[in-house]
């Protein structure tokens, strides 16, 4: 396999062997919206087309995606496409079963899109993996060899770069830090396990815990919880501390297993970085013991919403990284 | 990098390009004993030489290792050496700082052994990584692409094979499942963190817990605890259940992060497989939720004490796997 940065450094040779450099189509499939944009090899993102993920059957969702994709391509041309999809997915079969798109269970997304694009190559990865690749290539993950890119939002997801390559695993689901267990006596998780990081750290988990403990915010949302915390509300502050504690324990576990250089955190909860970072640093101090675990750096996403699109585009431009 | 099994399958070509196939020296450095043996490329292990790890200063330990190595080589010849050492270690510097060999802190083991062998290549890995490679190549890990090889004994260690290659990480310490956090409110761990798998699952942790809960065994050892459990002692049985619960949670976390096919467990606690396996299966049912996590197989080591020696030998025979 080829290191993506070595490949980038070898631009003249690469350009000779692969002219002309055309854009690729980057596609983001989520439970709330579908999005697509052409992405130039240099990382410039063209006009982004989005629409809400429709209710309805599998073909209704597919038809919406076709319209997004068609509009994003417009009169241009793309050499291939990359899809970052909400998981879980099956990387071998090329199918997706996003938790929040009930109509798609084992939907053959990769092959349907490839057929739509006249047989051009299509790469399918978990959306958190896509985000990790974007940060590694263009954002807060530049310069490291082993990183975990995380999204802390409605759920808690992650994607791994190890030895400078995507490590997605056989099924394409590696990096699921949200479903590592940090509280052996913890609450049940929708995944079927219990005590998962996601049951404590996710935005909805924070809000639920705060409400149970007497918080009265303007609305039952993460934004309102962050506003309360900034106003000094002790329950809201404790909700961030509790979330960060579980997150830090999960990150320490991931660093112990994967000898990570850096963890890059994006997503809605990370937007309240001023509230998240201090207790997260404290938590890492508690749960990271061995020197090689303590060396892990935790930084905020630089690309946030664009990380996934840039990441899947990078994977199409450089399939050897995948 | 080359897949070790592809390389093995290509024996005729390999033999042509690299004659004659000579043995390598496999070295095992632990807190209680030092061991070495020549290992033939086909996996045959020659006469094993062992001696207790001496007390004394760094040079006294080194002198003991020199005598073990010299006797193991005897009148033969070796093309290089592989060392599996108790950790932690620094794979970049080639130094080791085994927790239980106090005299060696940053000891330049790789370069000292290379000099002793007249500049022949020396590979240095964590002993748990060595064991994982041995099982992958010759034992219970054959046929998979992503596995965690574990040792559950005085400590709880591990080594990762991902995509058919060793993943040791930049510092050489990846795979430390014993220091993943499964109990966020758990006891302090000697590593400096708290709630680590090792604080619950290791043999000494099991014995301590049993003694605190009223167990009166023939001796404060894991063997006596296993004997009591087989006699139906409820506290001894509960100690195995508690150990297996934390182990299952840690394995579920590792599978969620690394999309593992199989976990191979060796070490003293695993010798009581009849007592460990049933509650471990139950625990995995509790803590593995997502389908790709539930697919992980947990099996017992086939090579046990020889896994490390065979593993480091395999790494010398096929450096591309490391």
Which key phrases capture this entry?
homodimer; 322 residues; alpha/beta; Nucleotidyltransferase, domain 5; 5-stranded mixed sheet; 12 helices; globular
Task: Tell me what you see in this structure.
With 322 residues, chain A is α/β, with parallel strands linked by helices. The first copy, chain A, folds into 2 domains: 4-126 and 306-321, Nucleotidyltransferase, domain 5; 140-301, Nucleotidyltransferase, domain 5 (2-Layer Sandwich), CATH 3.30.420.40. Helices cover 39% and strands 17% of the residues of chain A. The first copy, chain A, has 12 helices and 12 strands. Chain A has helices at residues 4-9, 11-17, 58-73, 109-116, 127-138, 198-201, 203-212, 222-230, 234-258, 273-287, 291-294, 307-317, and strands at 24-29, 33-39, 49-52, 81-85, 89-90, 95-96, 122-126, 147-152, 156-162, 165-167, 262-266, 297-300. In chain A, the strands form 3 sheets. Chain A has a 5-stranded mixed beta sheet, sandwiched between helices. A 5-stranded mixed beta sheet of chain A has the order 10-9-8-11-12, sandwiched between helices. In chain A, strand 8 (147-152) and strand 9 (156-162) form a beta hairpin. In chain A, helix 7 packs antiparallel against helix 9 and helix 8 (222-230) packs across helix 9 (234-258). The longest helix of chain A is centred in the C-terminal third of the chain and has 25 residues, at 234-258. The radius of gyration of chain A is 20 Å and the shape is globular. Mean pLDDT of chain A is 91; it is low at 1-20. The interface between A and B is large, with 56 and 56 residues.
């Amino acid at each position: 396999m080829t290191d993506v940065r070595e490949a980038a450094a070898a631009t003249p040779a690469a350009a000779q062997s692969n002219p002309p450099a055309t854009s690729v189509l980057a596609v983001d499939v989520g439970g709330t919206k579908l999005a697509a944009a052409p992405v130039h090899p240099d990382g410039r993102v063209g006009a982004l087309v989005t629409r809400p993920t429709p209710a309805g059957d599998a073909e209704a969702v597919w038809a919406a995606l076709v319209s997004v994709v068609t509009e994003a391509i417009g009169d241009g041309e793309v050499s291939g496409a990359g899809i970052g999809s909400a998981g879980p997915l099956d990387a071998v079969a090329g199918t997706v079963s996003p938790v929040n798109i009930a109509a798609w269970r084992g939907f053959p997304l990769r092959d349907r899109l490839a057929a739509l694009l006249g047989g051009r190559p299509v790469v399918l990865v978990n959306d958190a993996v896509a985000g990790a690749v974007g940060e590694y290539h263009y954002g807060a993950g530049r310069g490291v060899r082993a990183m975990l890119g995380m999204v802390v939002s409605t759920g808690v997801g992650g994607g791994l770069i190890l030895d400078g390559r995507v490590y997605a695993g056989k099924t394409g689901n590696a990096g699921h830090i949200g479903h590592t267990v940090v509280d052996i006596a913890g609450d049940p998780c929708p995944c079927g396990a219990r005590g998962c990081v996601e049951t404590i750290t996710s935005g909805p988990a924070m809000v639920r815990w705060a409400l149970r403990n007497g918080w009265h915010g303007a609305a039952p949302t993460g934004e309102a919880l962050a506003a309360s915390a900034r106003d000094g509300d002790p329950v809201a502050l404790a909700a961030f501390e509790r979330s960060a504690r579980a997150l830090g324990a999960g990150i320490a576990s991931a660093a112990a297993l994967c000898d990570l250089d850096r963890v890059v955190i994006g997503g809605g909860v990370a937007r309240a970085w001023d509230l998240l970072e201090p207790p997260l640093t404290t938590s890492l101090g508690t749960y990271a013991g061995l020197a090689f675990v303590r060396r892990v750096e935790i930084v905020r996403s630089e690309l946030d919403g664009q990380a996934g699109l840039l990441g899947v585009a990078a994977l199409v431009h450089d399939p050897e990284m995948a």
